[in-house]
Amino acid sequence: MREGAFRAPEAARLLASAILWHARGVGTSKPSDTMLGDKPKAPNLERLRQSLDDYMNEKGLRTTEQRKLIVQTFFDTTEHLTVDELLDRVRAVDSRVGYATVYRTMKMLSEGGIANELHFNDGIARYELADGDSHHDHLICQECGEITEFEEPLIEELQDRIAARYGFVVTHHKHELYGHCQDREACQARKLARTTRTIPPRDRSFGS
Length: 208
What we know:
Layout: H1 8-23, H2 45-59, H3 65-75, H4 83-91, H5 99-111, E1 115-119, E2 125-129, E3 137-141, E4 147-150, H6 153-165, E5 176-179, H7 184-196
Parallel strand pairs: 3-5
Antiparallel strand pairs: 1-2, 3-4
Helix pairs in contact: 1-6, 3-4, 3-5, 4-5
């Protein structure tokens, strides 16, 4: 490997070490007890709706009442929903909506840059609103499935500095931390609630 080449393991180690170094108040004007990992700011819904309108006009896609309901339901949530979970919420308003309609609508939102399709190593696709100005990272509990969003400018700064050190240009990234909740009792309660939740059978037909 050439001198100065990008080495991902070493870069990750440097990033982790630098975060701990700064978090302890070393070499920074921030006090050591400053809270890190703030909650991310809310997405700009007005801009996302305009982007959706522009995308649909560009692609010649028509708006239906069911599609409007799916989009509005998705825009109203702050969670990372699967297609099944979104379908349950949509059907609480209109029981006629089918799985295929929700699936295709979310694919459209993802392809149009309105939604991010996320995969957290469990084989399930989840969706969240995509807004470049509200970039954030995730903490994922591998036991109860709880997903916590956070943003930390220090991480963004350090990864840019590390990339510059190795002559690397970052175009996009995702930062996911896997583990388990510190509150074990609450974690087990959430896990039990998820595993005992009754999910009614649904038609997954993709026919027209």
